[in-house]
Amino acid sequence: MSHFSRRHSEYGVQAQSLFWSDFVVQYSFPIVFTRGLFRAGDDLLADILARDGAGPHDCLVFIDDGVAGADPALPGAVAAYAETHSATMRLVAPPIAVAGGETLKNDAEAFEVVARAIFDHGIDRHSYVIAIGGGAVLDAVGYAAATAHRGIRHIRVPTTTLSQNDSGVGVKNAINYRGSKNYSGTFSPPWAVLNDFDFLDRLPPRARRCGLAEAVKVALIRDADFYTWLEANADRLARFDPLAEEEMIRRCAALHTAQITGGGDPFERGSARPLDFGHWAAHKLEMVTGHEVLHGEAVAIGIALDTHYSVRAGHLAPGADARVAELLERLGFTLYHPGLRTEDGEGRSVLLRGLAEFREHLGGELTITLLSDLGTGLEVHEMDEARVLAAIDWLQARADGTTAAR
């Protein structure tokens, strides 16, 4: 008898036993880069569905309304593709347009359109929910799929640079709640990620640029050679040269995936989240500006802020912060926004409050990724508020064309 059981038996309590339930779940999904995904003669999507055996498989398709607006023929092309591949897939309804951007993550009524459609059309665990859109739409539709019947197969078709090289290739889904970014969410890997580069040609420049910030992020924390490549190709990337853009997306997605699969914590049970370098400030800036600042734009500012902070804290060599800021500016980003100085009713920095919220979202102790070199991340567990405010001063001084005091 164990000490635990014996001690309780002495007091007349029924002896208890303890055993561990220990098992491993294997996840595997393809991440494909292609063009012309919904052309009638392209079999990629049909082949992905056929991984589950003979069809036809019921499919419910959601399309970002911004994507549908830029390509009005897309819903018809999806329907025609399903008709051509009727032995493999069956649309249970015409493709459904949903609110793009953060609206779908913020608005309960907009999200209800997704959840209700899954319910009304009887989508089950052997059916497929297919989301075509930017990262926010993939997040919200993925969350609905992950929570319906405890998990429905979800295929992502990212349509932005940011979703193709970063958010769309991960394992997270979420919606926002009461002003807190990604508060309600799941870790639920997709069935497949199908990146069609043709969608990028329809993006407005501002949205197309956003994914470049995530490429700089992952290069700074994991791959100095990739960072050097970004510097060498900054002008090509800034004008959206297709070959440079496609190589950037592939390399960034590969690094992102390597962190998830090889970093030892794919479902983020610990406190460290290196892929969120620059994001603690970015998330707060998005929220305080009512998403006037797009996610990639906020990440660029957050990267510049934390890189300068790394120098001020003595972790990173002086001058590296200016080098990173210059790269981001060459790529087309503005690195200061007045929202960084937003204060609450008691005169306290709202941005700094984001540190506490970030710690709460992570769980455990505060863990922030900084830099010890360009290409090498460093985990710290505290941030000096005075240095953060000084970093904001530095960003404003750069924007104003003046020199910030060290």
List keywords for this structure.
406 residues, alpha/beta, Rossmann fold, Dehydroquinate synthase-like, alpha domain, 2 domains, 7-stranded parallel beta sheet, two-stranded antiparallel sheet, 17 helices, disordered N terminus
Mean pLDDT: 91
How much of the sequence is in beta strands? 5-15%
What profile does the largest beta sheet have?
7 strands, parallel
Instruction: Please tally the helical runs, counting DSSP H or I stretches of 4 or more residues.
Output: 17
β-strand number = 11
- Order of secondary-structure elements: HEHEHHEEHHEHEHEEEHHHHHHHHEEH
Distance between the termini: 66 Å
Number of domains: 2
Q: Return the CATH topology of the largest domain.
A: Dehydroquinate synthase-like, alpha domain
Class computed from helices, strands and strand pairing? alpha/beta
The CATH class of the largest domain: Mainly Alpha
- The CATH architecture of the largest domain would be Up-down Bundle
- Estimate percent helicity: 40-55%
Radius of gyration: 23 Å
> Could you state the CATH homologous superfamily of the largest domain?
Dehydroquinate synthase-like - alpha domain
Which regions contain 5 or more consecutive residues with pLDDT less than 50?
1-8
Approximate shape? globular
